[in-house]
Amino acid sequence: MSPAPADPPSAPASDQPTPRWVIVVWIIVVLIVPIALTLVRALPELNCRVAISPILYFSLVAVVALSGIAAALAIIIAASQALDGRALATGLGILIGTAILLVHALFDAALPGALPELPVVGVAICGIFLALSAFAPPHLLREQWRQQARRYLALGASLFAAGAIWSFADRVAPLHAAALLVGAFVTIVACGIALWRYVQLYRQSLLHRSFRLLAGAVLLGEAAVTQLFAAPAFSISFWLYHAATIAGMALIASALLFDVRRPGQRNLVQRAAFEQVRPLVTDAMSVLIEVLERGEPISTDMRARLQRDAGLSDVQIDALERLALVVERERQQRAMLAQLDEQLRERVRNTTLLAQMVIHDLKNPLTALIGFLELLSAGDLNESQRSLIESALRNGRDLAGLVDDLLDLIRYNEGRLRLRLSDVSLPVLCAECADELTGWLTYESKTLILNVPPTLPVIRADARILKRILLNLLSNAIKHTPRGTTITLSVWREPQPDGGEQTVIEVADTGPGIPPERIERIFEPFGATGESRSARQSSTGLGLAFCKMAVTAHGGTIEVSSFPGDGATFRVRLPDR
Hints:
Blueprint: H1 20-42, H2 54-82, H3 85-110, H4 120-135, H5 142-169, H6 173-204, H7 211-229, H8 236-260, H9 271-294, H10 300-310, H11 314-377, H12 383-413, E1 421-424, H13 426-436, H14 438-444, E2 447-451, E3 459-462, H15 463-479, E4 486-495, E5 501-509, H16 516-519, H17 543-553, E6 557-562, E7 568-575
Parallel strand pairs: 2-4
Antiparallel strand pairs: 1-3, 4-5, 5-7, 6-7
Helix pairs in contact: 1-7, 1-8, 2-3, 2-8, 3-4, 3-5, 3-8, 4-5, 4-6, 4-7, 6-7, 7-8, 9-10, 9-11, 11-12, 12-17, 15-17
């Protein structure tokens, strides 16, 4: 289990300006009691009686005690939510101290002729827990919180029982003076320790002092001193003791209750002071962020400002300075990488543009070459010459198809490929493809079977691209199968899961099939190439990549199934558009 966070490291005291009238008001608050006590001691005639009925007195004490108990419970609940050990101890101190005052007042009210008095032991218990809170960890883990709460509750129960007995035992004349002295001494020492410790904490965290909490601790100690010199019931010194006791507990409770409204920023005791200094800390951190963004070393003035306003130690500032240099180096490296990346992109763009220009410029001479070959094939040729012309014409058309495939792939990758949809009759389109390949099939001694019902409905597609898909698939089947192979082109309609229909185009052959290690990459550019083919059946590896791109552009899918020695089957599914 990790330990609770320690208090902030020591740093120079804050010299941030605080409104003078605020300081003056709190000085007056803590000086009223000793000044008034000095006056009534120096001028006994001022220590007159201001009497009220005992019932009214006990009722007022009960109301004040109940209010203190309610405030203490609110503090304890807030402390349990924030896992704040300091607030828990303070809340328990107020709860037990006011509970003793309430029990004492109710017991006195039930006795005939009881003399009004607030037992000093309640104030002493409040001071003890206030001193404990100053040394308690402000932030705890859940299990640590439970352990701390159990210890405080056990101590509180013991002190409550002892305090209740003590508050009644001091009514015995021989014990009264001793009980009063011991209670006052414990209160003064406990409040002095709490005051010293909280001043140190606020100095270390560079926050404005929470004057309410500090003034409350001072007033509790002054109440104990006043009790030593208090005159009989209802005198001015008597009321002075009551006022100091009630005001001290009220200031401490209000200092913590004020924090309940902002439960997420700091522990309950420190948050009010943090709210006062927030603008200064925010300004200092903004300057720090600006320095970190520039990657500059932290100047001496900035270092002093961070120590003064934000409470950072030299070690923390040095770590931030190292972080700033690391961030700056990383920023420079990112800038260099971005520059190199842009240069690479520019080279790729230039290379792509050059490739497009070269590929596009190939179309004109290829078109002219194919035209010349077609003219030659129409002339009077012997069988050998005609075979050579038809072979050259076929290869020229393949090369022209390759150029078109490359251009369409580039357009597709750049988002510039636009389909020209029209009504396409698949039986007619398949027959045209078969006619174009008749010479090649005869030369290769291969058979093409068309399994295309003439009743198939027309579909919406780009006729030019769809024809090239069929020619690519059929050409691959012719290229990569031995002589005597049978190739089947089938088309049919099948239902879709959503209730509609789709067109299925299948090209199957009885060749050697496709090796399993090439199936996964067969639709990638150059993924269909391999050393297993003969030189006569060499391929660029772009035909199937074009087919996948073109089918995807139509919203369809293409797949392949093959087993070595059992041929290959390519299946295209085109949904109705």
